[in-house]
Protein: Beta-hexosaminidase
Amino acid sequence: MDRKFLFFIGLLFIADGVIAREAVGQRQPGSQESPWAWACRTGRGCVKVAKDSPVEQGDDMSNPTLSGCKLTCNTESVLWPKPRDAISLSKTLVAFHPTDIRISRISAPNSEVKSLTNEAFLIFRNVIRKGIPEAFRGRKQTARDQQRPQIEVQVSIVSGETRLEMTTEESYNLHVKTIFATAATPAAPRSTTSVSITAMSFFGARHAIETLSQIMAWDDTLGSMLMLTDANISDSPAFVHRGLLIDTSRNYVSVPVIKKIIDAMSYDKLNVFHWHLTDTHSFPFVSTREPRLALYGAYSPAKVYRPEDIKELVHYATVRGVKIVPEFDAPAHVGSGWEWGERAGMGQLALCVNKEPWPTYCVEPPCGILNPVNDNIYSVLSNIYQDMNDLFKSDIFHMGGDEVNFSCWNETTEITNWLKARGRKDNSKEDFLYLWTHFQNRSLEEVDKAYGNKQPIVLWTSGLTEEGHADKYLDKERYIIQIWTTGTDQSIAQLYRQGFKLIMSNYDAWYVGKYFDCGYGQWVGEGPNNWCSPYIGWQKVYENSPRKLIVNFNETFNQKQILGGEAAIWSEQVDGTTIEGKLWPRSSALAERLWTDPDTNWRVAEHRMNHHRERLVQRGIQADALQPEWCHHNDGYCFL
Amino acid sequence: MDRKFLFFIGLLFIADGVIAREAVGQRQPGSQESPWAWACRTGRGCVKVAKDSPVEQGDDMSNPTLSGCKLTCNTESVLWPKPRDAISLSKTLVAFHPTDIRISRISAPNSEVKSLTNEAFLIFRNVIRKGIPEAFRGRKQTARDQQRPQIEVQVSIVSGETRLEMTTEESYNLHVKTIFATAATPAAPRSTTSVSITAMSFFGARHAIETLSQIMAWDDTLGSMLMLTDANISDSPAFVHRGLLIDTSRNYVSVPVIKKIIDAMSYDKLNVFHWHLTDTHSFPFVSTREPRLALYGAYSPAKVYRPEDIKELVHYATVRGVKIVPEFDAPAHVGSGWEWGERAGMGQLALCVNKEPWPTYCVEPPCGILNPVNDNIYSVLSNIYQDMNDLFKSDIFHMGGDEVNFSCWNETTEITNWLKARGRKDNSKEDFLYLWTHFQNRSLEEVDKAYGNKQPIVLWTSGLTEEGHADKYLDKERYIIQIWTTGTDQSIAQLYRQGFKLIMSNYDAWYVGKYFDCGYGQWVGEGPNNWCSPYIGWQKVYENSPRKLIVNFNETFNQKQILGGEAAIWSEQVDGTTIEGKLWPRSSALAERLWTDPDTNWRVAEHRMNHHRERLVQRGIQADALQPEWCHHNDGYCFL
Structure:
């Protein structure tokens, strides 16, 4: 039997609804039928084969279109990230029209959760539509409607939570079952697919809806949507904190681009948008209580985030299963926006702003550091914190604490006098750590007042977290430490042993566009390699398991202490124009690592990764290409 | 005198037209006046300064807005590439409304050239509009029209050429003169700016129009367009061949994205779009005479270039000063699209297609090579060449000749028998070079028949161009060699001494996204560094002077022999979604090197480069960010 015959058998089987057959007739006029089909080949995956060639042993031609094969060939279909707990999927498909998916029942403890679920379902339908070529979208419904396959979705949610917190349960169950009508009941619909989603929280249910969107796909050959007829998935994440850091100070990123980043995060089940809102370079955050910060600090009146922008983004993220964690980095990494202190009679709020030679005072131009002995800064900080709490309402807050250089403080008489008055006359490292701790404690007080509780605080690894400092200066019950050293740095083991909770962003794997930026040229000077070169491929991102990092220190892995991880994209050499391609699909590799944390390596994931990248592009994300499309058409043939 | 006072003086001076003052009132409602202005600072450039601070020595506040300062602070304004011959620019500005630029006279020898010029002028007006924020575009003309500054453009072209060829003269002269109306003539327009463009060819005139577009800019603060009042520029390119190679086989690049690439090339005065149309991976070129090639070889029926697409692109490129040079790479780098030979009773057209293990037969998966002893291939090639000539009508043709691996030929009995029949029984390197030369000569015959003349042929450096081979197998009067080895490779010196014309694409500087792609991870395997790592920053692209490469071989530089250069972006790891950010602004660095070939280094160009990148983004090109925007606001402060 040659492949051509099987191909038609396959088409008829798939095209159980009338839509598919209709659609086949709608291919581009004049285009000849393709000579190619796809075989699910043992040991490889979906492979392009000529329809007129004999079927090879090990080739399954049941679903001979590209989409049909991809959906059914592998155990995990084309799901990304791969479900962690249990997965059982059919090898059979049903064709359907996207307007025939309906949510038939939501069971939830309150109307807010119902409303979020309805919104998530609308988003899902729009996402599905994005995968359909323009020419096929929005076709009119016809009289045949009742004969088309129906997909009915039921959602059942236990908890009334409407904000994603570290304690939120994100697990879900997804059951899909299709009943085909028999010839004996011709008046009934051709088939009915029941989808049942159960989850503890809205956030789990939303993940289930995302998973559902990935067991369906547009089929170019058939001109129809396809979906697995049956599926049973139980799923939950390995880590609670699965994030991306976006820096909007070095370069501004517009609100629409931030929305696209959140869209893509939701496709990957990433759940934390860590917003490095401000830095020395610019201050785009419009503080209602301190409007002079953005007036002086924004790159332009248009390059700001107004309170209404942020409120909108927080809701936008929530319905997509993402929480926004703001960072206000201090006492270093400030400058632009703080210039008005003396004009307002408040003294110098920031010191050494734009001071040269910059390498003496900071790690990159321009320099700047807060003046911790000027008490006026604490009232300004209090205002910032209150505004941030009002807008973000996140359950953790990031206080930065990155890269404090003591040279500027050392040269400032106001500072050295303050230290002298406290019996510290040496201007030693210990003296400045004392000053820094004074700043950290004073500003923490303001955070606590602003938030009205003692919520967890994140700090970067820094001088304060070094050996002998962390346990002396920082309370492990208050502080979570975000690691940005290499994954083998001993300070990780130390902090872990001391009982600090950790978020991993070790730069050797998860700084996907770091300053002097990984794998790009330098931006000050002309050197070809920056400090965190080379470019980090998705494979390396994928292999970076926080669990394995801990085990490699000969420590027992304690899930409660390792909250998860974040990929960081600092924006010295990126802005909204190209950020998507630098984030994706590498952030997807991070996502599967943090959601599934599989024991298998990137090779096993490569087919799905390639396919997921194509799906991201279909959904409008400017994800970078990893391989020639030929590799996507010939699974398992692009290996060394 | 403080800066604030100067700022208002400056505004009034600039805002000679009524538009500017109107527009100032139209800034976003509620936004407070910015506390910042810009000083043109000696030894630095445009630097952000507080309006209420005293003027520092060396600071010129004549044009205190960001755009005004940038346009006037440097000798070359913000022109990119920098004019090569003579440049004299005013430090004064006139505000105008884009609808008030008119072309008043075109003097040209034929109507085709006039029509091209009119089209180029319309493109120019659209480009200008792209730089204007949405809210300010398309404002209604008011009764005050006659009072607004008028800009009248006259164009004078000598030659009737309508196709860009290697012999086309691209030089131009641009004169801009503004006459301000005096108080004594209140009824007259406030000012009139006369623009006079003279050029040998349309292509020179188009470059002049591009230059004109770069001495004007939108001013955010004033809410108006600004332009230098006076300018005298004589300009001509250092090299005739200034190109980009785009590969549309490994991954498809859509026609709209190709148009955007051509747009950006036109902003940079790059003039050759080298189209690597086909390769082993896919065959997207729809050959009218051989439609089976794309039927079998395209990734999908939508991922093709139809004759009408190509015709449209060729015209699109021509009016933008760009010629499209097609490459049909052979005998290697073929595969997809050639599978139908045996089905059609024509024997095997391509050998070892998709054969494994691929490292034995080719440099990357999938493998494939033409069967040069099957005479049927020459009729197919003839058809391809005829189609290409019909569509592209370029004055040079690229026959590829890259990376021929002899293993496949060596294992093919049909080939070894053919060699035996010609007394070559050793299957030695020389035997296969003989076969390759047979192929090259036979296919060249078909090219010559198709084109009806003996036009220059480009070949890549390869086994055929190695020491002792080039002069033996290739005619230096017919072949131009495109160099892709490193810039210090001795074969460059050799070919140069032998008298071959050269196009430089040495991969150590101008392979901006090469396969196993420079500075990215590997796509087969997981290694962090590929063969042409690291990522090549714009500085290195900028410093790669073909002239200096030749001089470094202790050779006298002969302008006629070095046609120019190309940056190559192979598409194993890129497609239309991210190609713009990988091409730009690095291709702009290439452009200034090839247009101006300055003796100065990248440091001198950095301010203009930063500004040009912003301009590319304003014009809709997704150019990558090079630095924090802070550096663009503070020229000369982001150096090590």
User: Anything to note?
Assistant: Residues 12-30, 513-517 of chain A have pLDDT under 50 and may be disordered.
